[in-house]
């Protein structure tokens, strides 16, 4: 059968892969010889927004598609929250690599498939070299709604999940509910639900302001391990919420001292300030709209000053930069992207 495309590209997070995603893939397989699926938010730690790693989501997709799964070329796609150009470039490279590995021709007919449903679908217009195949709406629960039912653990919600995901995915989600990872995320889900509920009486949705410190000393990065929800056990930058009577830089220095007991005097730290930036991606925090101001302090050489965890951190320590950059899946929220930005590796 003559296909309209050699390859159709489908980009998504698939957290989880639901019937709407399945409908898009079935439609794409009717138009193209192969479908390249890029699994977004790869390399993220487990969270209530990203409960499954890229490999687990690939298993979901292949199980759901079944006999035609051999026509799928599935690749992970990392986020670049503060560098859209880098993300677009990565998409292009992953597609080119998938075609090359498949033995496809350099002039292969490539298209992009998806559903232009709202502002979140803006990325569909960022690849003008590929013809866009806009798929009609499929009435299913959103992935966000499915995750909410999954972690709420109400019986009615479990029935809704089964009605909105392919049977193999429903079986995988049921198995996931019996894992320690699910138990931790369920506790985090409850914490976040109560956290947001405390602000229900506010006259408008709150916007939180935080500060973070990126301290580099002799090729090492100062990190803390979170001791509480959300993100318990993940590595993070020393930081916290801005006090009502503080300047941003003073709040960053206070949090740095409280969480690491770093004894470098404030004037010395201020003199070593190399850069600062606001990080404001709308989805950067599961707690709600949270804008952080990050400060980059750098010391070229010298013995590493002693630090120890305290306050909200159960551990603080200096980590070689190369080691830290290899631990993307163990970083809290967007802290890995903040580090990437200041170290020039985004």
Write a brief structural summary.
By secondary structure, the protein is α/β, with parallel strands linked by helices. The chain is 35% helix and 24% strand.
Domain module count: 2
N- and C-termini, Cα separation = 43 Å
* Helix-residue proportion: 25-40%
Please indicate the percent range of residues in DSSP E strands (runs of 2 or more).
Answer: 15-25%
Mass-distribution shape: globular
CATH architect. name of the largest domain: 3-Layer(aba) Sandwich
Protein name: Bifunctional nicotinamide-nucleotide adenylyltransferase/Nudix hydroxylase
Cofactor: Mg(2+)
Pfam families: CTP_transf_like, NUDIX
InterPro entries: Cyt_trans-like (IPR004821), NUDIX_hydrolase-like_dom_sf (IPR015797), NUDIX_hydrolase_CS (IPR020084), NUDIX_hydrolase_dom (IPR000086), Rossmann-like_a/b/a_fold (IPR014729)
